[in-house]
Amino acid sequence: MSDEMICVGAISGSYGIVGETRVKSFCADPYDIENYNPLTTQDGTRSFTLALIRPMKNGFVARIAEVETKEQADALKGTQLFARRDQLPTLPTDEFYYSDLTGLAVYDTGGAELGRVKSVQNHGAGDLLEVQLPGQSATVLVPFTQAVVPTVDLDAGRIVADPPEGLF
Fold this sequence. Notes:
The chain has helices at residues 70-75, 98-101, and strands at residues 5-15, 20-25, 39-40, 47-48, 50-56, 59-64, 80-84, 105-108, 113-122, 127-132, 139-143, 151-153, 158-161. The longest helix is centred in the middle third of the chain and has 6 residues, at 70-75. It folds into two domains: 5-87, RimM (Elongation Factor Tu (Ef-tu), domain 3, Beta Barrel); 98-161, SH3 type barrels, CATH 2.30.30.240. The chain has 168 residues and is mainly beta.
């Protein structure tokens, strides 16, 4: 588990002309991204030491030690930034990293399989589980609330959901 990589942010482009970058943090406290240095690409082939300079709309202006020019910063646009799982804080029992939920089987309260979690999304109004229906490419968005998802069992690799009538 300690070698698992968790996406904590992304480079959204260059800022200015001296190699600074725009960075979006996916951390609960956005400033925490700086605490997980060095950050890497998902495959671990590139490493970045990040220093936040100031907040800006939708992220931060950041300096990456390995980036010296605007062209280098432009080339990193879209690069996701990963930290090792063991660098991140341990969560309370009722909180989860999105990567922990992806791939879990979802069952209704009667034990019938509803599908598997394809992704976890948040568009500002709360977390949503994107559940892919069994044997189909179709997905359903399920509110990730205590009322709708009363049980998450990471050890068993399953979620029990009580979705609103007509959702599935």
